[in-house]
Design goal:
single chain; 512 residues; mainly alpha; Serine Threonine Protein Phosphatase 5, Tetratricopeptide repeat; two-stranded antiparallel ribbon
Length: 512
Amino acid sequence: MIPALLLLVAGCKKSFSDLSKNENKPTSVQASLLLNGVLNDMYEAPYGDYEKWDQYYIINYDYYGNNRYDFGAGSDYYGTLRNVVKMDEEATNVGLPAGNVYNALAKFFKAYYFTKMSLQMGDIPMSQALQGAANLTPTYDSQKDVFKQAFAWLDSANTELGALVAAGDNNLKGDIYFANNEAKWQKTVNALRLRLLINLSKKADDPELNIKQQFADIISNPDKYPLMASMDDNLQYNYIYPTNNYPNNPGNFGVDALRYNASATYVGLLTKLQDPRLFVTMEPATAMVASGKSPISFESFVGANPGEDLGTMYTKTNAGQYSLINRHRYYDTYTGEPSVQIGYPEQCFNIAEAINRGWITGDAETYYKAGILATWSFYSIPITGSFTAYFLHPGASLGTYDTYTVDVDFLNYYNQSTVKYVGNSADGLTEILQQKYIALFRHSGLEAYFQFRRTGVPQFTTGPGTGNSERIALRFQYPSIERAANTSNYNTALQGQYGGNDDINGVMWLLK
């Protein structure tokens, strides 16, 4: 019996590492689950600071915030990027070959997140980042190098996705945007590349970047570089009640419906252009209607100057002097309209801008008109005919609306001197940028702000309410962790860019 007992004891012997394992805690995760988290991190919702800084929809009650451009730290996506790296690793660990769909998308995500941080702050850690304990103090890559690497990633991602689509690959899982449609992801890769190239318009003649040729290569070879062809190709976040509510919804109506109002930057542009999208997105100022003006007269819509003192703005809003966001569209449901992150209209306007600037040949007007028509379709405005405008009845609760028939004809709208494309000139470029700004309403995070910062279109207004000595800030500061834990490299980056100061008014490389 004793030998048998010794054998039993010897057979049960375990190492310390075996005993320390938590069998209830996973040591690996499926690439598709990591993808799901990365995709959700892409989502930039409306109704927040970005929307105010885009000068679309501004706050009038200081208890809830303000419209100041006193930028703090920019976005920190390094946690998300670590998941991107892990997603790529896990796809390989389960036997997927090199160049698999997760590897291709990892390149897209790296380009997306690194450039997003760079657009906010300037130089950032990139080539030495994401190494964990192996390097806790990564050096900063120049903004130029960040974009050069992003373009290389996107070109590679397009090539890999093209091969996968041609082969009928079906390994993608967990995709909340395109339901695992790899062909649509390939279009998104190329749409992002066009966006980033346009963001470098001031560097179009840099021989190392080759901006114009990159743009031309994409447009001239649609078989290799497919692009979005309609609104069906939008990278957009769809709301599903009750798991993810639209930011403006009936549950929030009593709290914030009067705390925000229209910005004159957005409303003023729409009234100038006699644009029917105004009747879908905003409501008439009740004081204007009370004075005898028609609710569907453009004169009835008034936005507030974002630079106005908040106390004054609040008083005027409550007196009905300013338009509010359309509460039928934005508060009457929990699901709301999709939030477009990268969209077909923006792509159209980016191509039109490139033609206007002489980067590529083509008919800018065709893309300009396509972008406008696409946004009309988003709001269900017919090319010709009529639609119903719904405005909350003054003093009523949700569900009680006054309805008005709005007659529209796209040709009449388009043939206005303020709308019709005047050609490849500075005035034509302004028209393109104005329409792009309208199309980005409530979409794509800070893209409208980035456009203003790059081009000055449309003109953003300032005043005491916007702070920062009545200036629009030009950049975000670095996260405080950089100052505390990566001090030497942080200071070197500041010295090389902004005279040693983490200055929100500093001019980054791509704006020079």
